[in-house]
Predict the 3D structure of the following.
Amino acid sequence: MLGYPEMLALAAEYVNIKEAEYLKLERPLANINVNITLTLENGKTILAPTYLTLMNEVGAGKGGLRIHKNVSLEEVQSLAGLMEIKCRITELPFAGAKAGICINTEDLTTKDYEKLIFLWAETYKPILIPRNKKYYYITACDVNSRPWMMSKIVRHMGDYQCATSKDPLDGGIRGRPPATGYGVANITKFYIENISGESIKGKTIGIQGFGNVGGWTARYLYEMGAKITAITDLYGGVYNENGINIPELLKYTQKSNNNSVSGFGKEFSNEELFSAHFDVLIPAALEDQITKKNAYNIDSELIICAANGPITLKGQEILDQRNITIIPGIANAGGVIASNFELMNAGDPKVVEIKDVQQYINKKQISNFKDIIRLSKELQVNLFLAEIILAIERRLDILRAIGF
Ligand code: NAD
């Protein structure tokens, strides 16, 4: 996954930036590392290194809490950089940030998760609790972190603004959990219908990941009339050339082992997903899934980045040579946009209808996506680079106007 310094270097070829400004932007404002020890329900004690990166002082740091065995400082920093790009292109009042806990989740029980979240919240209390009404970091869901955990965090802190994507009873809003998937489906439909001039109905789609983002993306695209023919996850996959029945699959995964799609129909692997034909391919699992090793095999005209950073730079170069269009991070910005809506409506979640959240996502996502498309045409660069350039230009505007 590309780090913020590399993205800045790419943008600097096109943006007028002074040396002092470059120095100010290049590194995160802060990196925090705290090692937590956790005694599991089975009596075993394990060490779980945790990290938090805050990119700058533009606003409260925003970016989810990732709980995964591969979490590292490098990964958290890169994800915070992607969040910084996302907050600038959506014009939200946040600084990019990310938190992570490095732990093998395979053997964790619900009680272990509860304890882990309690320990994490206790550890990061000084950053999560506002001082003089200023928030430094507002957390949210990411891989393996769930709305009930965000509810635990705000209850523990006694502050309903220090986490988003929590339960509506704890100051959350109804449309937040589906928001990222809604945004992914929304931008897919917009691109196919308004840019390519075709219909979303009947388009074949392959999705990697069936968690929060992949699951909601599949549900919305299914409702729009697209034909989702393959879905894979960490444990396996499923293929149906006539289209998978998504409502039935969602029911199935509520009870299946590890909530996996595996066993719902004809088995399908991640390798097959990255070489089978789809009109649209949607990586919605993890970063660095499309690389120089499999980019030549991809058989889709359009790739939508539902996950953060699912394509490496080399993978991107190969896909560019092959004229495959990639819609970058703006595609998965629905979550952070809805988080802002959640914070704006804090204290009165009941008045918020899902359609209000979706309208807000649609407005912010599509208008800024049009800016990215315009810049891409103007500079003759791909959408990925246009997005980075736009984000750096907007970051420089803030730096020059306010000084941070
Ligand atoms: P999740 O934990 O709910 O789901 C992850 C899914 O990916 C699961 O189905 C899992 O089985 C699958 N998966 C994990 N490792 C895999 C592998 N090696 N191969 C194939 N499948 C694998 O996580 P999520 O919240 O849906 O997040 C998915 C991605 O979307 C991440 O990159 C995350 O950073 C990004 N994202 C999430 C949000 C959000 O609001 N949750 C917002 C923006 C971006």
Summary: The chain has a mean pLDDT of 96.
